[in-house]
Amino acid sequence: MKSADIYQIHAYDLVSFVEQFQHAVQEGYVIDLKTIDNYPQMIGTQFVMNLVKTNDSKPAKEVKDEAVVEKQQTQEAQEDKSKEPAKRGPKAK
Q: Between the N and C ends of the chain, which has fewer C-beta atoms within 10 Å?
């Protein structure tokens, strides 16, 4: 079930629950653990959870792209450090 700002997941097995959860996250929904109505629950064999769409949430693809860029920058910085000569400390007595 889906409304404008809330994505409700209701599944009877763990696999379906995880698939629906992944789909909601990719659409920009997030877990809201601050309100009791949106807290994830398992009632008998049912999995129920409400996810909330926030205005500042980014689609998963944008977040993934940013992570790739950050990783590349980190690797470049490490390569630059490895090119510098080793610094020697004071000689042992």
A: C
